[in-house]
Amino acid sequence: MNSMVQLVIANRSDTLKYRWWALIALALAQFLVVLDASIVNIALPALGSELHLSTSTLSWVITAYVLPFGGLLLLGGRLSDRFGHRRLFMIGVSGFALASAAAGLATSGVWLLTARAVQGASAALLAPAALALVTKLFTNPRDRAKALGIWGAVAGIGSAAGVLLGGVLTDSLGWSSVFFVNVPVVALVLVAVPYLIPKEAHVERVSLDASGSATVTTGIVALVAALSGTDRVGWTSPQTLILASLAVVLLGSFIFIEKRASNPLMPLGIFRNKSVTGGNLAMFLIGGATTGLFFALSVYMQQVLHYDALKAGLTQLPLAGSLVVIAGVVPAVVKAIGTRKTLAASLFLLAVGLIWLSFSPSNASFAVNLLGPSILMGIGLGGAFISGTELAVHGVADDEAGLASGLVNTSQQIGGAIGLAVLTTVASARIDRLLGGGVAEAQALTGGFSWVFLGAAAFALIGAIAVLVVVRQSPSFKVSD
C-alpha cells in the first residue's frame, strides 16, 4: 500500500513538473509575440537606410505586424477552440519562425512588409492558443493564479524589454538580428511543446461562422488601420473617416450576425460573465496606457535627454525588474483581497507613477526624476497585466478558452492602437502650440510628452474605476448562447 501511495505521489509530481516546464515554453512564445511589437522601433533607421525606405514607409514596418495581429486574434482564438489549442499553437509558432527568418533576410521593402504581415497573422494564431493551454493545464485556483502571474509578468516584461534588446542587438549585430533572435527560441519551443503538452483527446468539429469571421476581421483591421494613420493624415482626413466608417458598419454587422448564427464565432452571451467583461475592459485601457507610455518615454529619452539607443534601453531595467519581482507577490495579494481589488489597486499605482513621470523636466536626471516613477509603474503594470488576464479568463469553459484568450489579446491590441493614436495627437497639438508660442524645442517636446503621460494615467484611472463598477462577482459557468 505504501509503495502504491508513493507511486501515485511521484506520478503527480512529474505531472506538476511537466506543467510548469510547459508554461515556460508557452511563455517564451508569448514573450516573442509581445517583444516583436516594440523591438523593431530602434532598428527602423538602420533598416530604412539599408533597404532605401522612406519615413512614411518605415511606419508600415510596425503597422504590417499590428494589422493582421489585431484583426485575426478573435478568429485565431475560435479556430483553436474548434481544431485544438495545441495544434493551432504549433501552426502559429511555425509560421512565426519562418516569417521571422524571412524578415531578417529581406532585401527590399516589399519583402520585409510581407514577412511582417505573416508574423502578425501567425502571432494571432499562437497567442490565444497559448493562453488557452495555460488555463487548461492549471485548473487548481492556486496554481492557476501563479501561472497567470508568470504569464502577465512575461507580457509586461516583453513590452519593456523590446526597447532594451532592440538597442543592444541593432548596435552590435545589425538590424536583421532583431528578427533572427526569434528563430532559435521558437525552435526550442517547437521541440519542447510536443513532449510537454499532450494532444487533446477530443476536439469538437463544428462549422465555423464564415460571415462573422469575415466581418469582425475586416472590421478590426479597418479600425486599426484608421487609428494607426491618424498621426500622419489626421483625424478628419478622408482616409481616417472612410476607414472608421467602414469599421463601424462591419463591426455592427458582426454583432447582428452573431445574434442569429447557429455556431457564432463569438457567443455574445460570454459577456454575461462580468469577469470577462471587466477584465477585457481593463486590458483595453491597459493597452492604451502602456503603448502610449513606452512610445513617449523612448522618444523623450532620445530626443530630449539625448540618450543613445543603448542607454535608453538600459533605463528600462528598473521597470522590467519591478515586473519580475511583483510577479511573485501578486498571487498572494489576489488570494488576500481578490482579483478585482488587486487589479483596481494596480491600475491606481500605475496612474500615480505616470502622473509623477509627467513632472519630469527637459533636463531630467534619471536617478532623481525617472527611477522612482519607473519602479512604481513597473509594480502597477505587473499587477495589472497579471490580475487583468486572470479576471478576463475567469469562469470560462475549456471549449471557449481560445475565445476568451483571443478577446484578451484583441482588447489589449485595439486599446493600444486607440491609445497611441489619441495620445500622440494630443502631444503633437501641444508641442505645436508651445513651439508657436516661442518655447524652445526641448521644453516644447517635454510639454507634449507630459500630456501623453497624463493621458495614459487617465486611461489607468478609468480602468480602475470601471473594474470596481462592472465586476461585482466572479460567476463560473459555460456560455453557449
State the main characteristics.
single chain, 481 residues, mainly alpha, Growth Hormone, Chain: A, 2 domains, 19 helices, disordered N terminus, disordered C terminus
Describe the structure.
By secondary structure, the chain is mainly alpha-helical. The protein folds into 2 domains: 2-196 and 265-470, Growth Hormone, Chain: A, CATH 1.20.1250.20; 210-264. It is 80% helix and 0% strand. It has helices at residues 2-35, 44-51, 55-83, 85-104, 109-137, 141-173, 177-180, 182-196, 210-228, 230-233, 238-260, 274-304, 309-314, 317-327, 330-337, 339-357, 366-392, 401-436, 441-470. The longest helix is centred in the C-terminal third of the chain and has 36 residues, at 401-436. It is globular, with a radius of gyration of 22 Å.
